[in-house]
Automatic annotation (TrEMBL):
<dbReference type="GO" id="GO:0004518">
    <property type="term" value="F:nuclease activity"/>
</dbReference>
<dbReference type="InterPro" id="IPR029060">
    <property type="entry name" value="PIN-like_dom_sf"/>
</dbReference>
<protein>
    <submittedName>
        <fullName>PIN domain-containing protein</fullName>
    </submittedName>
</protein>
<dbReference type="GO" id="GO:0016787">
    <property type="term" value="F:hydrolase activity"/>
</dbReference>
<feature type="transmembrane region" description="Helical">
    <location>
        <begin position="107"/>
        <end position="126"/>
    </location>
</feature>
<feature type="transmembrane region" description="Helical">
    <location>
        <begin position="36"/>
        <end position="56"/>
    </location>
</feature>
<dbReference type="Pfam" id="PF01850">
    <property type="entry name" value="PIN"/>
</dbReference>
<feature type="transmembrane region" description="Helical">
    <location>
        <begin position="76"/>
        <end position="95"/>
    </location>
</feature>
<dbReference type="InterPro" id="IPR002716">
    <property type="entry name" value="PIN_dom"/>
</dbReference>
<keyword id="KW-0540">Nuclease</keyword>
<dbReference type="InterPro" id="IPR052041">
    <property type="entry name" value="Nucleic_acid_metab_PIN/TRAM"/>
</dbReference>
<keyword id="KW-0460">Magnesium</keyword>
<keyword id="KW-0378">Hydrolase</keyword>
<keyword id="KW-0472">Membrane</keyword>
<keyword id="KW-1133">Transmembrane helix</keyword>
<dbReference type="InterPro" id="IPR002792">
    <property type="entry name" value="TRAM_dom"/>
</dbReference>
<keyword id="KW-0812">Transmembrane</keyword>
Length: 362
């Protein structure tokens, strides 16, 4: 039996009793209809209690829980601290305010509680980064003195939240990137992302199942890494069913970036003003920089799309199209870079067999 049904039954019984008492009071005016009044008002009270009780009990609490679930833990903690400080100030001023003349002295303490409570919450939430950074520096001062390195628990790592998409967990590179320290902050994984990952891991398709299980292993490695802060949260978005849409809405509410390598999610998030950290873009950014005229030593492994073309790859995976490399397939060759193109799929390099090598052979 659910909690809502229990409250409905209690509300129905309570209002039925209240309706019966109301019927008794009205029946005193007309004693011949007392029983009718009692039964009628009791039934009306029971019906009202059955229908309206959830709207004054469980429904407001559910809405409040959903609202609190969408607020970041750091913001909620700062708000509670501000409320506590505001109430202390209001309590200290309660006695002086109560000595004011007439009705003002009766109302002023209550107004002071509302005003200082609101100011405390507003100020602490607005300056939560500075306040929590000060608390963090005080609490970690001893650790910094002993170890000489307090970067592991710095507030900059706690204060920044990064939402993780399912695709980036399955990809696997996030584990290596996070362990290097290039992602300072808390990696937040909502429960609906974890559910989608579990759905992929339980897929009847063998390849999808293998990818999902690899994602589970990556997530386990992230949790075991002491240099990476990972938090799984039950935070959710009401009224939205798709995981990508939930991530975008959640990122806007928390004002944090989304880490992904999903092209569609990347475009949707950018259109809605959400910051996106794309691992594919990071991989392209850290690839070796080559300029036209430089020489490369690569293994030409296959034919190209055009005639006499050969294709090889650099150590970082960058494709090199060799214009006159068809005869060199299967061998290592020195090639001269002629053009570098940056495409949506990544960086592509065009080259030719080095003329210096040809001259030496002649």
């Amino acid at each position: 039996m659910s909690v809502e049904i229990i409250f409905r039954l209690f509300g129905m019984a309570g209002l039925a009793i209240a309706g019966a008492y109301a019927g008794i009071e009205l029946g005193q005016l007309n004693e011949s209809l007392t029983t009718t009044y009692v039964i009628t008002f009791a039934l009306i009270g029971a019906l009202i209690g059955l229908i309206l009780t959830p709207y004054v009990t469980t429904r407001p609490m559910r809405t409040l829980r959903s609202l609190l679930g969408r607020i970041a833990a750091e913001t909620l903690f700062a708000a509670l601290m501000g409320l506590f400080c505001g109430l202390i100030v209001a309590a200290l001023l309660a006695f002086p305010l109560s000595t004011l003349p007439n009705i003002i002295g009766d109302i002023a303490p209550f107004v002071g509680v509302l005003v200082f409570g609101y100011l405390g919450v507003s100020i602490f939430v607005m300056r939560q980064g500075d306040i929590m950074g000060m608390i963090s520096s005080i609490t970690n001062r001893g650790d910094n003195t002993d170890s000489g390195n307090g970067n592991g628990n710095s507030w900059s790592k706690i204060n920044r939240t990064i939402l993780l998409d399912t695709s980036v967990i399955i990809d696997g590179r996030i584990s290596d990137i996070a362990s290097t320290g290039f992602l300072p902050g808390t990696l937040l994984i909502p429960r609906f992302v974890l559910n989608e990952l579990q759905y992929v891991a339980d897929s009847p398709d063998g390849l999808r199942r293998q990818r999902g299980r690899r994602g589970m292993e990556v997530l386990s490695n992230l949790q075991k890494d002491s240099n990476v802060m990972v938090r799984i949260s039950d935070i959710d978005v009401d009224g939205v069913r798709e995981v990508d849409s939930k991530l975008v809405v959640l990122a806007r509410q928390l004002k944090c970036p989304v880490l992904t390598n999903d092209y569609n999610l990347n475009r949707i998030a950018e259109l809605q003003g959400v910051t996106v950290l794309n691992i594919n873009e990071l991989a392209n950014a850290v690839k070796s920089v080559v300029l036209p005229g430089e020489f490369l030593h690569i293994n030409i492994i296959q034919e190209g799309k055009e005639r006499d073309q050969g294709v090889g790859y650099m150590e970082d995976g960058t494709m090199v199209v060799v214009e006159n490399g068809h005869d060199e397939i299967g061998e290592y060759s020195d090639v001269s870079v002629t053009k570098v193109l940056q495409t949506a799929a990544g960086r592509m390099i065009f080259a030719r067999i080095s003329e210096q090598v040809d001259n030496k052979e002649e």
